[in-house]
Design the sequence.
């Protein structure tokens, strides 16, 4: 049952319209909402919210059936947004957009002959995106240009380590406890190295080249020095961008950093999320701000490019708390800073929570103003984000993360290894191949699943 009093005569678009209505969840007062759609020589919709009704019209779209459906859905969503915005007297940061990648709309606009300096006006006029957010998208498109050329035979290699030594309250990623007696970590690393070898062989024999490598999780830095060396030796891609997700500062040691450096890692992610020790305890982090600074200094001594993640809207934090975090990170001058907005995800400790932070937009606004020396270089959104905001990656010029750009914009195939990993092939449509999330299942069906994956890469398996 819907959480809203909603009805329409366009059943096939109701899920999309409900997504639109959910953008106004914090304003919704129980008013009945109805969308009536009619098409003759033009698109026509009447949207009723409570006692207020508004009529909307647009020219009938042209093109194939898929394009007509896409443009009709866009018309209905915008009509509903405009009616709700008028009724509640609010304008949302991203207007009528409910998708996770606003940059995709900008690239579509360019493909249809639009100009780069027309991106911001296009997003504002077509989707009611606020100027501030639209300008960020325009900047990101410009920053990405040097990285999206000559990608013909390039692929990204992703390696998944689904182990952690604790669970943050906002995390929804499946992971195994590295300290559990039945973790099967040694078996997992052996299998993962075997899979990496088979996938790398396929990449080489098919004439492709690895553009970037990303070891993610979980928390890969919970691995021992020896396991990190074994993994990096198996990957063996000196000269390519190589990112290691060392997310929890308390899992980082000088020896582990040496294993990463000697293994060809060029970039590490050390993520405090906040520099407020009280908040760190509330969200399930087992480290302090002081431990973050210690880990950061140790990584900086090696010369890695360093990314730090921070989150706006965390439990009970006020603007002053977030300002302290941003200022503390800024003073370190990392190569990349990713500013997330808290999101309620299925499978996380926040799944049944109602998230609200009155100062969330001020927080992300402060970060954008403070990081003027950086460039926004990628952006994505998630459902159920505090304030209907966004996640933005900022970078010092010419030190952008190639993996983040090419994965977020889906520019090159992703060859993924490990339990819970998802490989992705590009083409007329994007095809995906998922490995089992459960470590035990990954190990028990390893040979069969690896054969299926290699067939998927070669195009000999039906694509999902």
Sequence:
């Amino acid at each position: 049952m819907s959480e809203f009093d909603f009805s329409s005569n366009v059943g096939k678009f109701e899920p999309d319209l409900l997504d639109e209505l959910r953008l106004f969840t914090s304003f919704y007062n129980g008013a009945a909402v109805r969308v009536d759609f009619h098409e003759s020589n033009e698109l026509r919709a009447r949207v009723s919210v409570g006692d207020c009704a508004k009529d909307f019209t647009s020219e009938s779209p042209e093109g194939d059936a898929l394009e007509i459906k896409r443009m009709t859905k866009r018309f209905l969503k915008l009509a509903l947004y405009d009616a709700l915005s008028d009724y509640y007297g609010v304008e949302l940061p991203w207007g009528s957009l409910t998708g996770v990648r606003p940059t995709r709309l900008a690239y579509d606009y360019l493909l249809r002959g639009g100009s780069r300096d027309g991106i911001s006006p296009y997003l504002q006029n077509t989707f009611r995106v606020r100027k501030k957010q639209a300008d960020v998208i325009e900047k990101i498109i410009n920053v990405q240009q040097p990285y999206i050329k000559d990608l013909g035979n390039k692929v990204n290699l992703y390696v998944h380590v689904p182990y952690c030594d604790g669970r943050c309250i906002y995390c929804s990623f499946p992971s195994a406890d590295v300290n559990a007696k039945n973790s099967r970590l040694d078996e997992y690393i052996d299998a993962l190295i075997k899979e990496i070898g088979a996938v790398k062989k396929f990449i080489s024999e098919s004439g492709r080249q690895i553009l970037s490598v990303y070891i993610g999780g979980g928390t890969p830095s919970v691995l021992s020095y020896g396991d990190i060396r074994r993994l990096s030796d198996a990957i063996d891609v000196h000269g390519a961008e190589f990112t290691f997700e060392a997310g929890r500062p308390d899992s980082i040691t000088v020896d582990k950093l040496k294993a990463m450096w000697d293994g060809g890692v060029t970039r590490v992610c050390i993520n405090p999320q906040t520099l407020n020790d009280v908040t760190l305890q509330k969200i399930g982090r087992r480290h302090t701000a002081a431990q973050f600074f210690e880990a950061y200094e140790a990584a900086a001594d090696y010369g890695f490019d360093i990314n730090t993640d921070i989150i706006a809207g965390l439990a009970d934090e006020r603007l002053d708390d977030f300002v302290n975090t941003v200022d503390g990170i800024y003073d370190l001058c990392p190569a990349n800073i990713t500013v997330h907005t808290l999101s309620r995800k299925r499978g996380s400790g926040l799944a049944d929570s109602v998230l609200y932070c009155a100062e969330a937009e001020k927080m992300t606004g402060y970060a954008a103003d403070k990081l003027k020396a950086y460039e926004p270089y990628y952006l994505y959104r998630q459902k159920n984000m505090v304030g209907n905001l966004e996640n933005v990656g900022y970078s010092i010029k010419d030190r952008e993360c190639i993996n983040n750009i090419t994965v977020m914009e889906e520019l090159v195939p992703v060859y993924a290894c490990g339990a819970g990993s998802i490989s992705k092939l590009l083409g007329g449509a994007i095809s995906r191949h998922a490995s089992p999330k459960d470590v035990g299942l990954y190990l028990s069906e390893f040979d069969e699943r690896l054969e299926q994956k290699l067939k998927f890469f070669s195009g000999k398996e039906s694509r999902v």
